[in-house]
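Sample entry follows:

:::
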Amino acid sequence: MATAVITAPPQLEQQKHAKQQVVDRIPARIKHIQFGIFSNDDVVSQATLEVSDRNVYDLAPANAGNQRVHTSNGPMDPRMGTTSKNTFCSTCGEAPEKCNGHFGHIKLALPAFHVGYLKHIIEILNCICKDCSRVMLPEDERRRYLHRMRRPGLDTLEKTKHAKSILEACRKMKDCPYCGGLNGTVRKVAGHPLKIIHNRYDAFMRSTAKNKSPPPGKVEFDKSLMTIKAALPDVDKHLKKAVDDMHPLRVLNLFKRISPEDCELLSMIPEDARPEMLIWQYLPVPPVALRPSVMQEAGATEDDVTNKIGDICQISSIIRAGLARGYPLQILMEQWDFLQLQIAMYINSDAPGLKQQGLQKTMRGFCQRLKGKGGRFRQNLSGKRVDFSGRTVIGPDPNLSIEEVAVPERVAKNLTYPEKVTRYNFEKLKRLVRHGPFRYPGANNIIKRSSGYTTLLQVIARKDPNGTRLKEHAEKLQIGDIVERHLEDGDIVLFNRQPSLHKLSILSHRAKVRPWRTFRLNECVCNPYNADFDGDEMNLHVPQTEEARTEATELMGVKYNLATPKNGTPIIAAIQDFITAAFLMSSKSNFFDRKTFCYICNFMFKGEGAYNPDTGKYEPIEIPPPAILKPQAMWTGKQVFNVLMRPNQNSRVLVNLDAASKQFQKPSDPREPGDANIDDSLLVIRNSEVMCGPMDKATVGDGKKDSVFYVIMRDYGPDHAVQAMNRLARLSARWLTNKGFSLGISDVTPGDRLNQRKQLLIDEAYAKCDKLIRDFKDGKLVRDAGCDEEQTMENRIGGILSAVRQAAGKICFDELSRWNAPLLMARCGSKGSDINVSQMVASVGQQMIGGARVADGFQHRTLPHFPKAARQPASKGFVSNSFFSGLTPSEFIFHAMSGREGLVDTAVKTAETGYMSRRLMKSLEDLSAMYDKTVQNSSGTVVQFTYGVDNLDPVDMEGKAQPVNFDRTFLDAVTTTWDNEEATLSPEAIRTYTQKWLDKERAKLTRYKLDGVTLLDYADKSNMAVDEHESLRDYIDTVQAFLFKKAKLLETTLQRHGLSLPVETPKKRTKEAANTYGILDGIAKISQTTLSRFLELCWNKYKRSEVQPGHAVGAIGAQSIGEPGTQMTLKTFHFAGVAGMSITQGVPRIKEIINASTTISTPVIACELSNKINEDAARVVKARVEKTYLRDVILYVEDVWHPNGAYIEMRIDWEAIKTLFVDVTPHEMKAAILTHKPLKWGKAGADVLVHGSRIRIEVPDTTNDPKRAGTKSAKTQKEYFERVQQVKQLLPDVVIKGYPDCQRAIIKKDTKPNDQGEYECQLLVEGYGLKACMTTPGIEGYKTTSNSVMEVKQELGIEAARATIIREIGSVMGSMDIDPRHMQLLADVMTFKGEVYGITRHGLQRSRDSVLQLASFEKTPDHLFEAAAKGKIDSIDGVSECIIMGQPVKLGTGAMKVYRPLNLESGDVGKKPTFFEEGWDALLVEG
């Protein structure tokens, strides 16, 4: 049971500072929750009656209204409340809406164990003496532990640790230090839910000593069993198993004698929870409201709980009567057991062992009501159903702004916003009230300021067809009233699509009320929601207060979430048709006359001109000068994008960008910039003018930081980016409508040449496969590393056939028309890829199932259509036909098999990743950046001293995990500040100015020793000099290095052209100088203005990208890792550069890492070799690591018989030893044979003789044992023969060299030569044994890594484990492009306690002490029972706790507090008199 401590607001006079509030009357706030257990007095005092009758209704017939009367003192007594609408509570007289009901109680005839506290009861019994009830610790130890438990400020985790050590110390004590009584172990009987036994003489019974003497008490215990021995002789053989039965009555009496000090040692608070409270004597009966009757046609059906209360009442009364009348003990014990089982079902119907007891149908106990997805915690406390929400199907509308959402009028009439009447909106709201609820725009309700009453306009409008009463109410409207008006254009709404995998799944839009029945949104915003229009539905929520609207706009607004916090790349950008249209429009073959160009430009605007977010006005559109002047003025398609980016000269948007398009290939000559590419595939923009290049997925789509919209957003703010996107959406939709873009059968019809080339390709691949199969059958196939011949063949065939589809895709690109629709979409990246085109037109390709070709479903073949043992491509899943030509039946089934695998994989993956995301979120939810730049959890524990080392926010990273993209920023600085009259600075002047500018910032970063006093040199890199400014110092150095590099380029350019700059840079340049330095300017000019601008940009961008205090870095990190997990494949194996060694990847690998699993599916140790070049040296090292068996190095093994016995002889194959590079001697082999456990030589051992290359093992004949005198029987001879054969069979498996935990080692040879032109080798070891591998001669220990986090922790420590977690998650999710800061935070959460804790309930338990957070995750009842027994306090700091308690979360905007001085003088605040002080003074005066 939990008690809430409520703190009222402190009196202002008693405080120097008080938090400034928005409202006048501050509501009381729950400060913390203390959990405890009700004592018997508490149970009885809170109850309104004792439930003693099992009958729900009186046995008398129903009254006149056919209503049956509830039995007095029965389970449904009206004094415990009521659930029917027209009756009132008999206790408080209130209706069911106001009365929650009242508790009752059952007085039990005998005490019973509480199933929830059974574990705690057994723990306490193990700690105390079963005779005197004292805690079994010697006095000095007892005092020491008591001192620890009483230490102030002891947190729950430390308390639990101390309690554990007390339990262990008590378990070791066999004799009580106070009464000398013997104590054994106390445990639960296996298979029984509630029976506890005390095995007092356990140690004596298990002892194997010859002369053991029975302990005191054992003799009396045996005597007490004599009676039953005499009555039942069969019992005699079971008497050794006789134990003490610790029944509830005995345990209760023991617990009552425990002193308060001993309670503290048992980590219980004597005032709140004494041990005897863990046992039921009085059972609370919950109010009727918790267990309402279900009314049906036949009558009322009672709740499971009500029926169980009746059962418990009846059994208790039977036992009470039996005790009074003296029933036989056996019957009473059975009844008592049954009573305990019924109470256990009442509390927890899933308790282990209840099902075996043959109880009736299962019911939902109280534990079942709390736990699981549908329980109180997750269903009703952590998440709730809400008002003011709507849901319908979604559709696209490119005419909307990306910030808008079209809301159907029908929805707008139902969802209201409470607007307060002011003098500014008085007339508007009067008009809305006159319209009423059924006419849009109108109002649904009025809340009067004076009385607080709500007027329902719906009721009035139904009875008022003329609207006169509505007019009356409109006239009576006063300032200060609240009108709940219909949703109108411009209202802030929250739009959400489930599953909500990351914070961008719920964004704030502005409503646009439209007709029809669907929500509509701009297609650019589909990406964050992962929405499409094939029937998806979305939810809309209307915030109800001005604060909520403000927060929704500022934090969740679409324009502030254009980039994803996963890595800072744009997520809201052009998609699909928009990209196709932009690509076609920006083609270099598009030319328009003035009329057409203006017409196209007008597509982008709504006839109002171009909106300028800086001025908030619509301004005229200025068209650029034509690209071709004669014979006719012509504008290009690219110039449309100039207007799109910068519609007129007033706009400050000057985009400067060099970006590779999707089809761009780097020129072979590194000096070539690529802008003169014949394919026109490099986009070059200068001051918002497109010089060359197309608009495609890479330049206007999502996922690239070199895109046009991203550059506008970063350099000119999100408002300008939103305007540009809106223009593109309108342009694309209208232009494609006019131009047309469709896909027909002609688009997928291959030409004759394409068919010929495809057939040639397939024939060639088949020929290669046939050759491989022949080589395999003839035994000529050279094996790949770590593979046998068959695996090698399969790997190579798989490689050949997979390449066919890729090659066919390239053929399609070459052969199909450039206007081919599927090809065009694949080329610009709007949808599909060359493989999709290839499958439609050329060949579907190899069907892979589980990463391999189709397995044999029939005997030695895939289908009966093929010959046995056929390994040809067609028989193992290769589909040579295309979807156009149609698949044969066998190809169709292979394709269906592959498709089935994909469907199953998706379904399984969804569940796996969903649970993974939930665990990540629960573990990281309360981490936030603080004002001191540390990352802390809700209890104030520091998890990171600086977020991600440099305190930068991933969403603001312009480069790859870097805050500034220097090349683009420099280009922008040069282009925007270009002036022909301004001369370039000299290289020396650039260096001097840069140094001077940056040194001003360096001067602010003074370096102190760790003591914070001793001043150190700025460049000091020693351990004692490390501080929180390291990353900023590194950044300053990076900026300097970049500019020095540019100065060097200027220097070399001057030298190459034989030019020299004047000593002093002139303020203005002459025309002659401009001509002289023209080439130089084009290559490397850096003017004073450019340099200053670049340095300012770099500094401002860095400062702007710092993490805001209060930012929920943990939740963002969890989403950034969890959301991409849904796109990962489930069962993937990545070959670690070697065909034979696969490493688990995808979701299973992520699970292994975050679970901190000790055993992983594919442990691999990557060993760096001392000699990387020589392959023979690598083989020698491999032989030291890998297990070499005796069978690998012997020619034969044979058993030789002679009259006196037999021996086994082997010959060593020295050639094999030489080939395997094994460094082993015959004597080492002898030692290995003698120590090989499966041979079971025993103490005597075996006689192993070594003669040169031969090893002889004498097998001892146990039948010659002198103790077994007599002639040899046939049986013993047979035993000896079998022993010899067993030894002969086991000998080849003896390990003579290598590490036991190493499964195998493979040498991986690089496919590319290093700088010296040599191929390097690396050793990959499959298995464990990092320490052994690191210390092996020939292996560089410092550079050896393992992918097993727990093994690294064990061998190298916690920092190495943290680095391994970061590296492993990075390698698995490498293709997902997640910012390393998120992975660092996850690794820190797993390791910040000094141990590796998994992101599981066990890890969470060890690192968090909040009861509510743990209870809302998993094992809800267990955490609540433990919290109650230990009297835990939850201070409601974390996210889960605040949500459950309905309090503002202390992150983000809730992290900030405002204090104000009260300006009180010294005499303003004085001591307040106590309540009776004045009366006392009066009495004194009278006296």
Remarks:
- The radius of gyration is 41 Å.
- Residues 114-214+243-278 form one domain.
- The longest strand covers residues 103-113.
